[in-house]
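Supplementary notes (optional reading)

For those who missed the lab, this is the record we used. Protein: Glutamine synthetase. Length: 445 residues.
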Amino acid sequence: MDLQEEAVLRKVQEQGVRFIRLWFTDVVGTLKSVAIAPAELESAFNDGIGFDGSAVEGLTRVHESDMVMHPDASTFEVLPWYHSGELTARMFCDIRTPDGLSARSDPRAVLKRALQRAADAGFTFYVHPEIEFYLFHQQDDPTLAPRPIDNGSYFDNISRSLARNFRSDAVKTLEEIGISVEFSHHEAGPGQNEIDLHVDDALTMADAVMTFRVVIDQIALQQGVQASFMPKPLIDYPGSGMHTHFSLFEGENNAFFDASAQFQLSKTGRKFIAGLIHHAREITAITNQHVNSYKRLWAGFEAPAHIAWGKNNQSALIRIPTINPRKPRSARIEYRALDSAANPYLAYAAILNAGLAGIENDYELIDPVDTDVAALSELERKINGIAPLPFSLKEAITVMEKSELVASTLGEDTFAYFLRNKEHEWEQYRYQVTPFERLGFMRGN
């Protein structure tokens, strides 16, 4: 048992923690949880907790069903929304085989492999997400159109009787469990909000994003509203993205910064972007994994539908924020396709490996674009080498299934399961008869 694990055992005893929830995700990012008593914690640290891995979608095959969850002591936090008489904490787990090997379809292990590849090249990978979500009135019928809890727009200061302190309560809760928030505000859609998390290493941030979703759902439950991370819940208003800023560091130095270069962007940064441009279509099924994701991408509202980059260009897939030359550590790129429903472990791994491929293979970078990409004609985009992102989940998985980069990033089992899962989602969606179709025939079409 290491020092961190011993420290957790002391905290549990001193604070009177009653339950410890062990968390991990399946391949598509659904959070899984099992609660153990404090008396079982030392054994969990030493030997792990065994479970039937075949019962978790995509985790393993039936004939390899035995799996073991090993809690990561560095992720221990007390969850503040439980009653003090039943103080509850959580830890994320790494999933392993009984022989101690990483489970081939554990999303956390997928990200760890990508981070090790970066570390072998001398890099540390940092992430800063801007997470958007909607708040709706509670309703039991999911087929009804959701009703936003307010009519606010971008940066509005909203006064309302329902969930009036939602963001401030969410921020306080996040900070109580060690997740730093940079800022929060009302977004452009009615009932739409954004909370930006402070930059951290990619693994810590992926855990934070999963925790963030739980916190938002818990605060919504307490305040009598419904939170939604659906990419495009409302037809006439913006979807919910998770614009994410990425940077590579070499020790204490930001590998993306060069004071003498265009946009203060180093050669390493340019090659990283070239990798993202080159592989963007291949990784889109990972960054935008639902049929609904493509309604956000292709609906306008500054959602990126084409593969371009530029300085402060809100219409581009990759934006280069203005860098303060006195703060070289802040140099970063923003990848704008990600939506709030992505599995952060797989998404960060795919983005990192795409960028590293650009560096390792010396990809050529297309010219930046300083105009609205969506406003360009198809011919203008073709001349500038600007390709479209996939139009649908079906197109995205068709592109992904031919991708060596995604296959090697996810590993054979995760890759195969993800494709099967998304093919099934597409087929289920394709068979639906929608109100739009019925309305057309009622009008005599």
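If you only remember one thing from this example: The chain has 13 helices and 16 strands.
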